[in-house]
Amino acid sequence: MPQDRRSLALGVLCGAAAGALWGLVFLAPEFARAFSPLELTIGRYLAYGLLSAALLAPRWRRVFAHLHAAEWRALLWLGLAGNTLYYVLLASAVQLGGAAMTSLVIGFLPVLVTIAGSRAQGAVPLARLAPSLLLCAAGAACIGGQALFLPSTRPVAAQLAGFACALGALASWGAFAIGNSHMLARVRAISAHDWSLLIGIVTGAQSLALIPLALLLGTAHHGPMDWALFAAVSIGVALFASVIGNALWNRMSRLLPLTLAGQMITFETLFALLYAFAWEGRGPTLLEAAAFALVVASVVTCLAAHRRPANPSPAKR
Question: What is the mean pLDDT of the chain?
Answer without folding.
Answer: 81
